[in-house]
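step 3/5: co-fold with 4-nitrophenyl phosphate
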Amino acid sequence: MKILMVCLGNICRSPLADGLLRRKVAENNLDVTVDSAGTSGYHTGEGPDKRMTQTASLRGTDIGFLRARQFSSADFDLFDLIYVMDRSNLENVLKLARNEKDKQKVKLMLDEAEVPDPYFGGQDGFDHVYDLLDSATDTIIDKIKNKQL
Ligand code: 4NP
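step 4/5: write tokens
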């Protein structure tokens, strides 16, 4: 199974979702490939935002090695599941879908809610995003183990 996490910049939310899921996949010895990308190319080649790297590091998740890249339609061929962080990401990814099969791979990370963009706010926003994605990646791991994904 190959899973891609997507947000706007690929420097705050999706690298955290990527790092959390990678760590949990390794801890659970699962055969899952994890990556992340941004719908924009604003930060291509950059590491994650320092505030997110530090938030993650303080709570036991290393994301400092990740580098931002832009999502492209080729990702529909490379991944089985594509999790987007908010509805704007959803719209942008679906615009690049070439067929119904591509569209069916795309899911909102939080089923009914969205992962709020912490970029223009304070530390509490980064902690909140960590809590949301920690819980969502636990759910993904449980579903993989129970063959529900
Ligand atoms: P992300 O956050 O989508 O969670 O990586 C953002 C990062 C950068 C910008 C916006 C959101 N930006 O406008 O540069």
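step 5/5: annotate
The mean pLDDT is 97.
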